[in-house]
Amino acid sequence: MKTRLLRQAQDRLFKQVDVFTDQPYFGNPLAVVLDGSGLDDAAMQRFARWTNLSETTFVLPPADPSADYRVRIFTPGGELPFAGHPTLGSCHAWLQAGGTPKRQDFIVQECQVGLVNIRRDPSTLRHAQDRPSSGQDGGRLAFAAPPLQRSAPSPAVLAQVAAALGLKAQHILAAQLLDNGPVWLGLLLDSADTVLQLQPDHAALKKHGLKVGVAGAHSAQTAPVLIARANREARAFSGSTHPSPAEAATADFEVRGFAAPIGIEEDPVTGSLNASLAQWLMAEGHAPERYMAAQGTCLGRAGRVYLTREPDAQGSAQATSTGSGQVWVGGQSVTCIDGTVTL
Q: How far is C-alpha 25 from the geometric centre of its chain's CA atoms?
């Protein structure tokens, strides 16, 4: 059996990229196998366990003719229907390897939740003539947040999770169960400082079986004038030691994601969580229609996620899944390792 497996192995293009950062080793790493053809589920899962990263992806030819490529997303413990940082990181790697989109306005990724549109933020392109088919220009990519289903958690579950996080009732401003493929219990806390000071009981969170995402506004963001998006440059630093004053001035919200049930105590930067948090918080008026979230601060990372909601035809914003009111989740990616892997 061992001889047969070795004989079938082949060299495949491989990249390891850092997502939601423009500085290597400050974001969330992702392993990308750029040709997963011929690999069965067991081989993909084995390699994902070996990389020991939060996610490993395998790029495949699309089954849907409207898609540019298909991606399968694995954690060390299993396959995911969708995840944000693997979406942006895989697209970055595919473009950099010479992938050419079928459309000029979007790159279309196929995954288990369906088709996901990805676009290039024109304000971040180095040259005005750069097009989405260029993977070398350093432009920021953004994916269209999948449709969100949300509901109120039971008081009993909320109390158990609050206890595991060391939170008192007055620290929690709002809570929702968020489902955009992955399921998170989302908590809006009273401040970014509260978010940064959490020391969760990860064993208790694992026992409850819930992934928990927490968000809190940096102090100036709590002012209604900033919720209305006035004078972003004038916001003052709150005095917290996390993060530095310069970083706090550029981040509106601090986010942390605890995923003990899938073997990840704290995720450095989480696209799917930030997507569902933005859809919820914007819809309820807790966040402006454009903001930046910082994540990974307590892990020594400097992840930055850019959230934007498009206005509808009447000029207001509604959190719909397509068309008017679409929420976009953006971030930069950098390639740290480029070569081949034998699989």
A: 16
